[in-house]
């Protein structure tokens, strides 16, 4: 098929370009937050992240020292110093004394401010303000300058976010929610899937139909009754209603229809002969399941585990309903949502937090893509 | 925190151990109650038959109990609650539904949901199909597919932050650090606060879901395309069909079933979309959708369960046709097994 269409060089070249454009559009957004999360926080707002390897320029304002700092030199009154004070030095390209024209003069040239007063600001920030008459007043001359800073990359944002914004703690909370929620449904679903695939009993067809129906029931249908149920149970036993146990069970319940559906269609496809010969040898259903079906089903179990892991890790809705927002319970997605509200403009915090929340799914995804794709195909193409 | 990690590990052990103990123990118990070995011939046959009646229920039992508590009971209960007042105590008839269709936010949500349903599944399927066809023809197609597939692993909240950064608007005179506004400015346009433009902001939110879901459509369709017999395509080429004719008249009709599956899967996802709207706008500037409106009513002013349940029922009604279609398809396929 590859060779049969689009033979000419131009059309093949066109295909490469088209795919490249799609790839760029699809990766640029993620690249943006990765690069930004590693940038200095002042530079993030000073220039777009696509310029992060170039020096970033910004216009700043400062005030020169007041008249008390003047000295006499060659019959002139002079104030000298550095606009950056003792702070970090940057390269100045231009300066000015009016807000309307902050870059009127080039660095290193002397500006005539009238009445014989001259001001020179050099590229390194040093300045000389000179006047034939003594300076007066206790407010210094206003000065504007355009400076550029070399690109600066740092892991400070990660430090800040992990240890003082509470993302580190939320990371642990997310793991606490995700791992049991992924492991518990597997066995329960596998037994049910085996029964639905290989055991004959009345009501089996109905059960399968119910499970396929439940596959598409919106989560929204479950939220209010379960919230009421949890509150009721909490009040009755005098325990908190928002607990990790509660969310583990909720995720197990919500994941089961897909788990049973996926495992059943795989287990039903296992060769009949293996089951029959084991049965003739006197193996019970339980032994067949444990010794034959489970080991053969490893690929589909892995597929489901990856799905459920990604689903639970990325979930916001269930976590917001069934878990609290205190630091000991808030998961990454909920924390990120909260930060969007409280730190709306602090892009160094948002981009870094976002990258931390997506790094685990990305690792899982890249290392286990084969199982992920297999599960996707099995889960949606057949019947679904 | 140590206690938390400990309890998580404890739960995994208890959970898995409990499951194993239950299945093994129940199975053992069944063998003890109805022994098939060491008893006379007819008794053994009888007991085997009894075992065969009970054992399937031991296997599906735990799953059925959990499904009943977490999905089946709630569906019935939500339907009941939608006819009750905010506390779920007094019967109010159809008052919640009457309220819904008169409510500005609700009507806005319905319109927006229709817009999402019209755009997102179509865009994902179309883009996914195009990319699947194109990447099939080049040597680095697998890498390209991997990269386009990648956003599928990212949470909706994470994706929202990623795109909020792209849509970022900085005031007059400041450097535009949002990619979209920077591009607009570069071409001489006027930077905008994109997510607060009524009506059009819907599309900026949809882009996020399309960005995430196109990879899904691409993978499924790509595998379907590979299932098209080589001879069909060769015959078309010999008959002088150009690439566009091959695409529209040979490939698309052959994978029509798969396209329908992708379309309906994304349709269901769109009906449930919540996280993107919550994090981007929380329904402001006329961008509300049903799922987010429902969440809002669940907690607004202590929670109005009657109205929340009503909105959930409306979402459910939209899903039912797909559900029926799925069950019919599955019955057709598994009928013989």
UniProtKB/TrEMBL annotation, chain A:
Where is the secretion signal located? none
Q: Name one GO biological process term.
A: transmembrane transport
Which Pfam families does this one have? BPD_transp_1
Q: Where is it localised?
A: Cell membrane
CDD domains recorded: TM_PBP2
List the membrane topology term(s): Multi-pass membrane protein
- Domain ABC transmembrane type-1, chain residue ranges per copy: 171-368
Q: What InterPro entries does the annotation carry?
A: MetI-like, MetI-like_sf
UniProt lists the family membership as follows: Belongs to the binding-protein-dependent transport system permease family.
This protein is called Carbohydrate ABC transporter permease
What is the species of this protein? Mesorhizobium atlanticum
Top-level taxonomy: Bacteria, Pseudomonadati, Pseudomonadota, Alphaproteobacteria, Hyphomicrobiales
UniProtKB/TrEMBL annotation, chain B:
Q: Which Pfam families match?
A: BPD_transp_1 (PF00528)
Keyword flag Lyase? no
Q: One of this protein's GO BP terms?
A: transmembrane transport
Report one GO cellular component: plasma membrane
This protein's UniProt keywords: Cell membrane, Membrane, Transmembrane, Transmembrane helix, Transport
| Record membrane topology | Multi-pass membrane protein
The highest taxon in the source lineage is Bacteria
Q: Which residues cross the membrane?
A: 6-25, 57-76, 114-135, 147-166, 203-225, 246-271, 305-327
Domain ABC transmembrane type-1: where? 110-326
Q: Which PANTHER family match?
A: ABC TRANSPORTER PERMEASE PROTEIN, OSMOPROTECTIVE COMPOUNDS UPTAKE PERMEASE PROTEIN GGTC
Q: What is this protein called?
A: Alpha-glucoside ABC transporter permease
